[in-house]
Amino acid sequence: MSWLTRVRNSLSFGSKRETPEDLWVKCPSCSEMLFTKEYEENLYVCPRCEHHGRIGADTRLAQLLDDGYEVLPEVEVREDPLKFRDSKRYTDRLKQARAKNPHDDAFTAAFGTIEGHRAVVGVQDFMFMGGSMGQAVGSAFVAAAQRALDEKCGMVVVTAAGGARMQEGILSLMQMPRATVMTRRLKEAGLPYIVVLTDPTTGGVTASYAMLGDVHIAEPGALIGFAGQRVIQETIREKLPEGFQRAEYLHEHGMVDMVVPRAELRAMLGTLLGYMAPAQAAA
Fold it and tell me: How far is CA 231 from the centre of its chain?
């Protein structure tokens, strides 16, 4: 069936108002116009250039976990402890972000199985204030790690962040050592901690739990780094190499263990958990 036939069958020509507004999506990499349904069926990966689009936490959890998983309760933290205000109040920014997202902050975790292997999966959502790490993200990470310890199962974290949340100042930076302590506890308990780096993973997240995994997997083309390329280039006063801070470059230079396409990610995580998880972690 040609694309023209699919479009014709999906449209109603009786009234212009009945035409779906989200019938097409434009690939941010190659600018190809994609049929939205096919784009979603292809796991939000462009079939032409294989650009891996950004996806939300619920979509990611559904892609990775077997059916019947349990979404962990959202943590409660004190909001706006610094009474921060720039062009807007921090509380207003939070309300605005929550109106556009299904969760109260940027980190959502669930407990279930991946290919039959029990695991806690935490997902950072870039669509919520750039996935920035504040007290809510740090506390959600700690709670997810504690659930993995209680269940004696592996933990998988999917990162996507622009760094620490500036509106929480030093309190956001304190989440780095908090998360680091929990990764150490997982290691001491002999439980696997696997990190999936997606586009983009930068700043304080990269400087803490994103780079402390037993295995680091990256999606193709993902931007991964601490400081931005322009800042680095201006600091060292040298032109950066082609593909710098991209998943493939980091894999070539040993910072990432493997680059795995989204369609193969669930199977790879299941294989790793099967090798690394203790015997009782299998469902």
Answer: 24
Mark whether 178 and 47 lie in a shared domain. no
Between helix 135-151 and helix 175-188 the angle, nearest 10°, is 10
Segment 139-158, tens digit of pLDDT:
999 999 999 999 999 999 99
Please check whether residues 194 and 217 belong to one and the same domain.
yes
Residues spanned by the domain of 99? 55-281
The ranges of the chain with pLDDT < 70 are 1-21, 278-283
Residue 13, pLDDT score:
47
Return the CATH number at 216: 3.90.226.10
Q: Do 8 and 63 fall within a single domain? A: no
